[in-house]
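Sample A.
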Amino acid sequence: MEKLDEMISDVCFEKSTMDHDIIDQSSAPTCSGNSFVYSRTDSAFSESEAYSPVSPFRPTLSRFAPIRHNQTPSNLELEMMKERFSKLLLGEDMSGGGKGVSTAVTVSNAITNLYVSMFGQHQRLEPLFPPKKMMWKREMTCLLSVCDYIFEFVPSSQSLQNGESIEMMSIRPRSDIEINLPALIKLDALLIEILDSFQETEFWYDDEQGSISRNGSFAQRKEEKWWVPVPCVPAGGLSETAKKHLRQKRDSANQIHKAAMAINSSILSDLKIPHSYIASLPKSGRTSVGDTIYRHMISTSKFSPEYLVDNLNISSEHEALELADRIEASMFTWRQKACSTYPKLSWEVIREHMESDKNVLLAQRAEVLLLTLKQRFPELAQTALDTTKIQYNKDVGQAILESYSRVLEGLAFNIVGWIEDVLSVEMRNQQEEC
């Protein structure tokens, strides 16, 4: 039993430094459907129930030893990691019958659920609680350590002692991981640093809806985000130093959001399109997008995606997501038709040299329209194609990069929103004084 514990401990903590702080049960994270704002962070492809981290005070069931409530901190953390390690091997199928999801999806779900557990209830411009911060760093270090053992083979030459040179294959970190993972870790540290910078603030939050406290002014709580606390500022307004700090951190978080979004979009574009999605594509792209959009796209005049989006009168994000799914499906339908006309050429070559082809033109305009729609609705959830790609992905490295960039994108977006809420209260307070 002691040897088994040592083996699992070595596997799970090879890249992390063990902290012996016990997380108080009252601060144990809980997962709520209304607990976090950014919708793209959702990920649920497990056939089992939604995952939630086990509190260190709840020992896991073991067939080798009885439950003990007087375990030391190191043993409690080891029990937590043993459960995570087991779920990874079982593919979240706790029956052990081999019906679980792939390892890539399991790791993706683990990162997503860890983010929800650590930041789901965090809705204010304030530092993350130290136990949660340590747990986030420790758990992410463990999950990201998988990338240290993902390599690619490259040809190289080696000189022998007699002067001869031989060709051989050497290994190196996979290029996509080597480029993107250090950048994501840096973005993660910057976001934590932004939250830490709001240790002492001139503003505060009021959890009571529709009340004014401490002689301050407050932001009107939005009905669609009723769970978000209300920011308040002093009656005399914020100082210039505080306002400058808020603007600087907003700009930094906005740049981080763009960087994480770019990495996530790049990883998603590299994921293979599942055959199930290809089989579900409509036979006619025109039928999918509708006659109104199709007539505008096929028009010989200058195509303006902004004008088209403005005239569609989209009233909700649900309508925007539904439209995005239909546009994306039509885009791939037209791509398939173009590729079937030139079967020996790739889509990249066809797009570059066959611009006069009708299907190529429609596919390109659909791609531009889809991008414009996503820019107009930055909180838009993942499209059906992105969701299917993640669900059927088998590449563990890509799964880690995609989920890590997605949760950082969501955290950065939320931070920008929280800062803008405070600045809007300050602006309204100044207008009322005038």
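Sample B.
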Amino acid sequence: MAFRRRNKSYPFFSQEFLIQNHADIVFSLVIFILIGLMFEATAKTAVLFIQPQYNVTTLLSEEEVTFYHYGWKDCATVVFYFFITIILHAVVQEYLLDKVNRRLHLSKSKNTKFNESGQLCVFHLVSSVWSLYVLLTEGYILHPSSLWENYPHVHLRFQVKFFYLTQLAYWLHALPELYFQKVRKEEIPRQLQYICLYLLHILAAYLLNLTRVGLVLVFLQYVSELGFHIARLFYFTDENHQKMFDMWAVSFVFTRMATLTLMFLAVGFGLARSENQGLDLAAGNFNTVLIRMTVLLAVCFTQSWLLWKFIRFQLRRWREFRHEQATRKKATKQALRPLKRDSIGHHENGVLKAENGVSPRTKKLKSP
């Protein structure tokens, strides 16, 4: 199964060979794990990679319901879906983005940003729809108090746990993709910043049993980022598409305010008034003043930093717009500047015209 066109063959174990064939290598590893399901001796190990672990069956309203909690075996599941996301990344790149790139003929810098926005646009669209579905089916939107009531939320339904595992797998796969996609050195620090922020916040929500609040925050963030990457894709196709950035700016500010409000409501007030206070690692309870303050400060710092970057971005756009307007006005004034007139008339299109608009007649020379 080849994901990329091979215009040139490279030696085995070389850097270019690994970059060109990384999706095929990972695909063979996935097939190897799936083949393990066929044999009784390796089936238990293969299931460890494919299926979420730590399931507990309980009776609710005379029905058996299966819940999950986290543990160290989740690392194996994350690794498997880490491989899956690398394959899906290569599929989107080869069969969608590369075809569009060949038509647009973008520069190298724009091509890198276009690929980044294209990949994140697909991911944010899928994740925002998925998280909204989970929020609706779990009833977190209709009952906001359930975000902090009955904490700690140790037992998760399958769709909630699987969502978090795939989110961790995706953002982990983004790290080696910086190497596989040959991202420019100037772009690596910026991309590392948001990759590490996503990993840190999603992992903290998962380990601290704040999965319900985390789901809402992830949904808000992904919808906002989806708007930004759609606007950037349209901008690369036609630089006159600037209005979508204004729409994204409104959603960005709303997301920051909603995130801060929800965190103070759920963590600052909801968990602070909960009867289940104290640190209990066995029960998964992290409801202490120190942990709550650390979580709030981390979220506030992140949101403030994002707002600061947003303000700088808008100021830069405003300065560029003002400079462009000034340049246009200067060019218009030069075009409308009055023409020089001489004493007998003025020149127009290379012809001397008199003051009354009639061209002066030239005297005929007498022939000898």
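B remarks: Residues 289-335 form the longest helix (47 residues). Confidence is low (pLDDT under 50) at residues 362-368.
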